[in-house]
Amino acid sequence: MKILRDIVAILLIYAVYAVITIFVYGGPETFSLESFHSDKPPVWPASMLAVSLAMMLLWYVLGEWVIRPNASAATWYAAWSAGLLVILIAATVATFVEVADDASPWLHFLGGIGTYYLASVLFSPEFAKYRIWPARLIRRW
Amino acid sequence: MSYFVVGVGGSGAKLMHSLVHLSAAGLLPDGGRTLLGYLVDPDESNGSVHECSQVAALYSRCKGLQIGSKTSLFKNRIELTGPLSPVEGQDVANLNSFFDYTSLSRTSPDEAALMELLFSPAERELKILQGFRGRPAIGATVFGKTVDFEDADWKKLGERALAARTHAAVPLLLAGSVFGGSGAAGVPTICRLLSQHLRAKIDNLRVGLILFLPYFTYDPVPGEPMQADPHQFPSATAEALKYYDEGDFLDFCDEIYALGERYPAKMPRSSVGAKEQRNPPHFLEMIAGLGAVRFLGGTPIEDAEHVVSLAARAHENTLQWADLPTAAGEHPSQTAKLQQMILFAVAYHYVLYPTIESGDRNNPILDHLEDVPGHDAAEDLAAVDAYLVAFLSWLLSISTPERAEAPAVFSPGLVDPDVFAVRDGYGWRLKTRKVAARKGGGEGEFREKDIGRLFRNLETKVQPNLRDIHRSSNTAVQDPDARGAGKLVRAIYDACKLA
Q1: What is the four-CA torsion angle of B233, B236, B240, B246, rounded to 10 degrees?
Q2: Which residue in chain A is spatially nearest to B347 when comparing CA positions?
Q3: Mutate to test the interface with A, among B352, B355, B363 (most CBs of A within 10 A)
Q4: In terms of CB atoms within 10 Å, which end of chain B has fewer, N or C?
Q5: Chain B residue at shortest CA distance from A77
Q6: How far is CA B332 from CA B101, B123, B326, in A?
């Protein structure tokens, strides 16, 4: 039950990221089905969101079912940092490859990394719930 | 209200030792009652007595934690008194000095002659401060003369029993061996004297006896001319049982449990007494402890005044969960409690305590310690770990008896000792565990993945899952009486319940 609650909460946080992305990129019509078939599909902002969400879910799965619950702090930070690194690389690639007129490279970094960080602080897996600062100070669930 | 248990000699102390661990697992029937244990031994430095006292002290330290009220862990208070010795001081080091033989031969030559008739010169010179060396006649003579119920400790027992009689039946259990020295001499003597003394005042007194028949053997102690001879144990047992029968002990004892083992265990060290007499625990003592639990519970005997209850195991070379004797209908709950305690001991000592000890403040299990200063909690948690090491040592010992002569080696049937122990020369020792970096570091010999095969021959198909234990340990304890380190211990204990 708790796991389901966490996953739903993570998806809600990413939903906010998605809404921000939609408005930064000019509104809902930018992300319509037709736009993905046009000459300039909004593939990079969507990809960034997907990569960040995938890393967050991967972190959750690793923490809940793969990494030993009493693993060292270094192990936990290494796993989380690996996800962060992937997002960072994806954001860098998106920044350089994106050719849209209204490209917003700041959103790739701030949105991708920021959302990953925020979701990690609030909804990291049980055994790592206090690993990401300042979760220790705010998490009471 | 209390349970009264008198353990006489080394075997009596070892029964008490088992009862401490069974009590920790919550097997004693009524949590509101105190287990009042009295150890009686002329050999005050007897290693088994000393070990029992140490374990009881560790237990009491843990009992002091605020673990909460809705749990069976460390359920009963235990007060251990003793060892009570029938002899005190060097001036009564042997029978001659005890009866003042020199002056007796002048003042009462007939009595002195009787003494000469009953005891050889070597027996009269035997140092009784280290026990009776397998000569119960000497012990019975000493006990018969010295047991004084006006003595402070015995008087306290009488007063507590008297106070308990208004609440419910008062169970008084005596335990010891029938084949050695102190137990063989003390159990029947004290049993008869004490029951006579108390029955006059307490109508609802229930008297029980636990008699250990031979279940261990050892090599002769070099250079000791007078010592108990294991080859004489069977004949001594036959004589003792005949004595109990002819003495009509079943008339004034409500229940008698007699336990023996066909293939006795070989003791690693031989000793005539003192601290060297520290025989490793044997599974028979746990069986006796379960008998004690049954007696203390006062399970009514249905439809018959005299009942012979038999306990036996299915296979000669092993002991399995299904073999453990309990009162009718209590087998599932009692074995479940024992299994929970075993899993708790392994998980706490080898997995969770090292993590807690490392002081990683980001470990969510430490949330349970929010209401207590860190230093206080550290001491309490270390005390629990010390007790659990004693529990695991006991468990290891009862799981791995070394038999002297048997057609097949004993195969552990309750737990797999390889999970938490390794062979070490003649016997076994507990595995080392992970040590925090600030305490020198080291991974230790224990492997966490092995915990899934900790139990053998379970009557259910559930096996321990360490991740589930971790997860449940982080769950808040729903017991307002659980506080501080006790709350953390309770959380881990609750998490170790096999579903």
Answers
A1: 140
A2: A70
A3: B363
A4: C
A5: B362
A6: 58, 50, 9
Q: Is B280 left (phi over 0), alpha (psi -120 to 50) or beta?
A: beta
CB distance B301 to B333 below 8 Å: no
Report the alpha-carbon distance of residue B340 to residue B498 in Å, rounded: 6
CA distance B431 to B350: 9
Q: How many CB pairs under 8 A join A and B?
A: 30
**pLDDT, tens only, B187-227:** 888 998 888 899 888 988 899 999 999 888 877 766 666 56
Residues of A in contact with B361 (CB under 8 A): 130, 136
Query: How far does B418 lie from chain A, in Å, by closest CA?
Result: 22
> CA angle, corner A126, sides to A125 and A132, nearest 5?
60
**For tokens 């024992």, what's the residue?**
B338
A 47-66 residues inside an 8 A Cβ radius of B: 65
CA distance B253 to A15: 77
Judge: B364–A70 Cβ closer than 8 Å, yes or no: no
Task: Identify all chain A residues contacting B360, using CB atoms and an 8 Å cutoff.
Answer: 73
Tell me the sheet residues that pair with B422.
B429
Residue B448 to residue A130, Cβ atoms within 8 A: no
> Which helix (H) or strand (E) segment is B394 a member of?
helix B374-399
Q: Please count the CA atoms within 13 angstroms of the CA of A58 that sit on its side-chain side.
A: 15
Superfamily grouping for domain B2-93+128-311: Tubulin/FtsZ, GTPase domain (3.40.50.1440)
Residues with Cβ within 8 Å of A6's Cβ and at least 6 positions away in sequence, in order, are A60, A123, A125
pLDDT in tens, B271-292: 655 556 668 999 999 999 999 9
Model confidence at B303: pLDDT above 70: no
| Stretch(es) of chain B classified as CATH 3.40.50.1440 | 2-93+128-311
Mean pLDDT of B28-43: 88
Separation between Cα atoms, residue A111 and residue A94, nearest integer Å: 13
SS3 helix, strand, coil % of chain B, rounded to 5? 45, 15, 40
Supply the DSSP string of B75-142, one letter for each residue. Answer: -S-EEEEEEE-S--SGGGSSHHHHTTHHHHHHH-HHHHHHHHHHS-HHHHT--TBTB-TT-HHHHHHH
Report helix, strand or coil for B191.
Answer: helix
What is the interface pTM, i.e. ipTM, of the complex? Answer: 0.87
The C-alpha angle with vertex B128 and arms to B123 and B131, in degrees rounded to 5, equals 110
Question: For chain B, how far is it from start to end, CA to CA, in angstroms?
Answer: 33
pLDDT-above-90 percentage for chain A:
67
> CB–CB of A70 and B361 under 8 A?
no
For residue B47, give the nearest of B15, B10, B87 by alpha carbon.
B10
Of A70, A73, A136, the CB nearest to B470: A70
Beta carbons within 8 Å of B95's beta carbon, 6+ residues apart: B101, B115, B119, B123, B124, B125, B126, B128, B138, B141, B142
d(CA B444, CA A27): 59
Each residue's pLDDT tens digit, B382-416: 999 999 999 999 999 999 998 877 777 899 999 99
pLDDT tens column, B77-98: 999 997 888 776 655 567 777 7
Q: Domain coordinates of chain A in residue numbers?
A: 2-138
How far apart, in whole angstroms, are the C-alpha atoms of residue B401 and residue B281? 8
Cis ω on the peptide bond leading into residue B83 (within 30° of 0)?
yes
